[in-house]
Every structure is written in structure tokens, then in C-alpha cells.
Amino acid sequence: MKRLLLVLMLLSGSLQAQNKLTDSLDFALSKAANDTSKVELYCKLSKQYVLTDAKKADEYASSARALAAKINFPKGEAKALNLTGNSLLIMGNYDMALNSHFDALKIGEQIADTTILADSYLGLGIIYHKMNDVERAFRYCGNAAAYAKKVNYKYGLARACNSIGVLYQAKKEYKLALRYFQKAVKLQEELGDKRLLGVALLNVGDLHLYLDNPANGLPYLFQALRINEEIQNKMIQVTTLKGISKLYLATGKQQEALKYGKRSYKMALETGSSKKLSESAQLLHQIYASLQDYKQAYKYSTAYIEHNGMLDLENQKRIEAETTAKYETEKKELENQKLKAEKVGHATAMRHQRVILAASIIILFLMVGLVLVLFFSRKRLKEAHLKLKEVNSDVQAKNVKIGRQKDEIVSQSRILKMQNEQLEKHSLFKNKIFTIISHDLRGPFLSVKAILSLVQQKNLSERDVTHIFGLLSKDMDVSLNMLNNLLVWSKAQMEANTLQLQPLELLPVIDENMQVAAAHAEAKSIKLTQEVEPHVVALADKERLSFVLRNLLMNAIKFSYEGGEVMVKARASETGVTLAVCDYGKGISEINIPKLFTDQRYTTLGTAKEKGTGLGLMLCKEFVESLHGSIAIESEEGKGSVFTVTLPKADFEGVQEQKQTLTATASCTLQAVS
After folding, report:
1. Which of these, 314, 323, 216, 225, lies nearest to 267 by C-alpha position?
2. In whole angstroms, what is the distance from residue 542 CA to residue 548 CA?
3. Would 198 disulfide with which of 134, 227, 258, 660, CB 3.0-4.6 Å?
């Protein structure tokens, strides 16, 4: 009992110490004498919070970066970018973290700051290791160690040794890995950095999983756990608990493995890191499968699929390759441009020298000739003068030719720039398509794989199989809806240049789409009504407007309670036409409203547990903007939502003329047939 009280007192003391440190940094921030000091304090707060709250660490790093850019403080901006990359890595956003470290690296090269270069190269090396790009990981971590050693930057050198040890462990070269881990431990003891010491001990403990006696690694892991509990480093606690669980599982102690595996998953939930949750859920799936508890194994397999899907590793690998190629291409292009400029300058100077030399020689001979001619006759003097004029004409002709060549080079440069911009647009369109497909279509198929794996065990009851296939059916419905939206959007992207706006009367369009949504409304006993002013005409495309209206109606039905009401309103004003879809359902919280209509693709369950894809509102916004309109939302949680679409106004006479034209055309066609 006394020992337990002592541990609680130590944890309480360390937590109070951390809170005091963050409070003192916040106080110092409020009293900072200048903006440069504020940038440094923002960076220190980000570094402090990365132990417990990666999102908050990212917020402080973003504040530091914005302020540093504003006051033209490049070193502070680069430091903030590296801290942003560290936070994004912890949260599993590898592609965004990669961009942050590359941006920091560019600034470090511009200002020739060795510590910035060491931190940037190390961040890139760690990400490339996570992305399984071993060659680049070794190269960048080696660069980081070289720069840190050059200026005796012990903190950076210790981190680099740790990362290189991890890379050698991944290559199964365990002796080399142990050598680098021991070097990192020595440096960390000199620095007195408990956080990095805890990481090194964790690495040594994990290494024993691949040695002859895995149990020998447990003392290192428990020592690392005590250090990380003392400094409240939740992220490393998750990994340490997972390592202890793996060693117990390797030694056949399944219950002990389950105990520490659960602690790891619980701690991962507190961090909110999709990467940590994915790894812990996968471990629990393996433990429960070994215990033949297939219901729990399926539960954590589903959790693994969900959080692993959020990481979107394949898409991030593709983006990582594109980002790396872009950086390396830009660097080579700058070198080539510099070399070409030097060659062009040298060639131009040589041409000028040759022209000057030739002109000088000619003038010299002419002057000698003129002197001689003066002695002999005036006629020869005139002939020499004519020759001089011919030479001048040749020089002018060459200058004109050079000018034309210069204009031609400028014209070709403009054409090349336009082609590059067009290629970039096509590349962005392709990336957007593959991002959506790889993110959403993979999940249901991974679920099918997990279910089939469990069914093959032949230990599931018929009730379990029925329940699981029911869940799978809902997932496939959501995927089909997402695929339909994606096909409509892709068609619109390919036909963007052929979009034709025309006067469109809203009442028939609203009635048509309400009939489409009627079946879904009847299933929940929801009443569909409309208040539409007569002869309200908008300038729009019928197919795209129907898509937007249909999605808004389906959303309203999805989030309305059984027996509720969904109303469509439309009216015209002097500035335009307003179309609103109102419901009185569950509403949207104020904190989630900014996530709508963005690439975050926010989605939540409906009142009857209906799933969504997160694509509908994003596509609605894109379609409305293609019609030169806008879309907005007003919502209050528990009271309902109002989605408002504003479109350009058109005259009702335009619709009547269009109908008369169609009628006349039909009449002429009938007469021709008769």
C-alpha cells in the first residue's frame, strides 16, 4: 500500500511539474517583449505538448510559423515547420509531415543553419522509415548525424543514432542496431534527457523480441515505462506497453500479453493518434485470435481497419513519392538553370569579344588603308568608306537576327509554362480521384477479408454470422452511394468545359426530386412539404442542380427523427434566387460545422444509424460554385438544420420562350413525319 501511494505521489508531482512548466511558458508568452521571443515560446510550448497532446502541439507550432513568416524570421519559421512535421507524424499524417520537413529543409539551406538541416533531415528519415523507403531513410538519417556531429549538436546526434539503430533493426542487423542504441543512451545520459533515454530503452527492449530469449527485454521495457510515466509521455507509453505485450505473447504468457495490450489500446485512445490506435488494435486482434475469442478478435480487427483507413498509407506513399520527386526535380532544375545561364553568359561574352575583335581589326585595317589612300587618291578613300558601311550593315543585320532569336526563346518559354500549368491541373484531378477511391473503396473490402477469415475458423454461430453480414451490407450500401456520387462528379469534371447555363423554373425541378426522395421519407414516416413562390427562375444546369437538391433532401431525411418534417423553400429577390432545405432533426454541433463542404469529408450516423460517405456536401459545394452560386448552412444541435443555396436569377419570359421553341420544334417534326 505504501509503495502504491509513493508511485501515485511521484506521478502527481511530475504532472504538477509539467503543468507548472506549461503555465510558466504561457505566462512568459503573455509578457514577451517582442515577436521573436513569442516565436521561441510558441516552439517551446509545441515541444512540451507533443508529449501528451499532439493536436495542441501542432496548434502552437502553426502559431509560431505564422508569426515568424510575418516578421521575416526564417530560422523560427524553419524550427516551427519541423515541430509541425513531428506532430503530424505522431497523428499519422505522413504526407503533410513530409511537406513540412521539406519546407524547413529549404529554409535551412537558404540561411545555412546546420541545426535546422540536422533536424529536417532526421524528420524526413523517420517518415521515410515509416513509409518503408529504407534507402532514403538511411540517407537522410545519415545526413542528420553528419550535420549534428559537425557542430557538436548532441541532442540531434542522439536522435539520429536512435533512428539509425531502428533502421538496422528493420534490416535484421541486430548487433549494429544495438551499437547505435547504446551510443544514443550514452549521449542522452550526458544531456540528462529522460524523454530520449526512455525511447532508447524502449528500442533495446523491443530488440530482444528478435533475439534468443525475448524475456530478457522486459526489464528494459519496464524501466522505459517508468520513465515515460514520470514525464507523462503518453505516445511512447503506448508503444512501450505494446512492446511488453508482444514479449509476453512471444513467451506464451497470453493473459499477461492481453493485460498490457488493453492498457496500450486505452492509452492510444487518450492520445487520439490513428497510428497508435491502429497498431494497438491489430495487436489485440492477434491476442484474442490466439485465445480463440473470435468475437473480440473481430471487434479489434474492425477497429484496426477503421483507424488504418484513416492513415491512408498507400495514398500517402504515392504523395510521398510525388513530394520527394518534386523537391529533387526542383533542386536539379535550379542547378540546370544556373548552369545554362552561365553557359549562355559565357557564350554571349565570347560572341561580343569576337565581334569587338573583328570590328577592331577591320577598323584598324581601314584606318591604315585610309591613311594610305589619303596619300594616293580621293577615289580610294571613297571605296574604303563604302566598305566600312557594308561592314556596319552586316553588324546591324546580325543584331536583328539575335533579337529575333531572343523573341523566339521568350515565346517558347511562355508556351512551355502554359503546358506545365495544364499538366499540373491534370495531375491534381488524377490525385483527387485516386485519393477518394483508395480511401473509401478499400475499407469495405478489408471488412470482407476480415469476415471471411473469421468465418473460415468455423467457430462462429449462425447469429454471429447474420449480425456480421448485416453490418457488411450497410457498408456496401454506403460504398455504392459513394461510387454513384463519384461517377456523377467525374462526369461533371470531364464535361466542365461544355457546361451550358440556361433559365430553369425551380418548381418542376423541386417536385421531381421530392418524388425521388419520397420512398426514403416514407420509410421513416417523414412528411415532405414545399413553399415555392410561383415562376421562380434561376440560371442553372438542371442535372447539377438536381444532384445538389437530391443530396440535400437525402441528408435532411437521414438526420430527421421518425415522424418529422422536411420542407423545401424557394424565393426570388433582386440579387438572385434562394433555395433552402429545412429539417427539424438532430442538427450539427457548432464545432463540426466548419468541417462541412471541405476535403476533410466529415460524416456521422443518421437518426436511424444510417452511414454516409462524406462526399455529398463536398460535391454539392463544387457543383453550386460551377453554377456561379454559393451554399451555406445554419444549424443548432437538437433543433435541426437549414441548407441554403443561392443562384443567379433569370427571367420567367426566358423559360416561356424556351418552351415555345421546344413546342414549335415538336410541331414541325410531327408535320414532317405526317
Report:
1. 225
2. 10
3. 227
Q: How confident is the model at residue 431 (pLDDT cuts 50, 70, 90)?
A: low
Cα distance from N-terminal residue to C-terminal residue, the chain: 104
138 pLDDT band, cuts 50/70/90, is: very high
DSSP reduced 3-state for 672: helix
| 483 Cβ neighbours under 8 A, 6+ residues apart | 441
Contact between residue 510 and residue 540 where contact means Cβ atoms under 8 Å apart: no
Contact call for residues 342 and 378 (beta carbons, < 8 A)? no
Cβ 238 vs Cβ 219: under 8 Å? no
Per-residue pLDDT of 207-229, as tens digits, reads: 888 888 888 889 989 988 998 88
Judge contact between 506 and 627, C-beta under 8 A. Answer: no
DSSP H helical ranges for 231-312: 234-250, 254-271, 274-290, 294-311
Percent over 90 (pLDDT), the chain: 25
Determine contact, residues 537/649, Cβ cutoff 8 Å: yes
* Under 8 Å between Cβ of 210 and 172: yes
Which helix (H) or strand (E) covers residue 312, if one does? none
Strand partners for 572: 577
DSSP structure class, residue 526: P
| Beta bridge partners of residue 531, listed in sequence order | 569
Contact between residue 530 and residue 510 where contact means Cβ atoms under 8 Å apart:
yes
For the cut 50, the answer to whether the pLDDT of residue 12 exceeds it is no
Q: What is the pLDDT of residue 665?
A: 39
Q: What is the DSSP string of 213-230?
A: -GGGGHHHHHHHHHHHHH
How far, in Å, CA of 369 to CA of 363, rounded?
Answer: 9
Tell me the C-alpha distance between 300 and 311, whole Å. Answer: 17
Cα separation, 304 vs 316, whole angstroms: 18
* Radius of gyration (C-alpha) of the chain in whole angstroms: 35
The closest alpha carbon to 538, from 503, 565, 573, belongs to: 503
User: What separation in angstroms does the CA of 22 have from each of 15, 195, 568?
Assistant: 11, 17, 51
Using an 8 Å Cβ cutoff, are 300 and 290 in contact? no
Length of the chain: 674
Q: How confident is the model at residue 292 (pLDDT cuts 50, 70, 90)?
A: confident
pTM summary value: 0.41
Contact 116, 74 (CB under 8 A): no
pLDDT above 50: residue 331: yes
Residue 343 C-alpha cell reads as 553557359
Which residues touch 225 (CB under 8 Å, ≥6 apart)?
Answer: 237, 240, 241, 244
* Burial bucket for residue 82 (CB in 10 Å: 0-12, 13-18, 19+): buried
At 282, list the grid cell: 491489430
Q: How do 565-572 and 527-532 pair as beta strands?
A: parallel
Residue 37 phi, psi (nearest 5): -65, -35
State the pLDDT at residue 612. Answer: 64
Name the nearest CA neighbour of 506 among 552, 538, 553.
538
Residue 52 per-residue DSSP state: T
* Signed CA dihedral, 669, 670, 673, 674: sign only: negative
- Taking the C-alpha atoms of residue 51 and residue 458, their distance in angstroms, rounded to an integer, is 44
Q: Is 645 exposed, middle or buried (0-12, 13-18, 19+ CB in 10 A)?
A: buried
Q: Which residues pair with 571 in a beta bridge?
A: 578
Of 552, 561, 565, the residue nearest 606 (C-alpha): 561
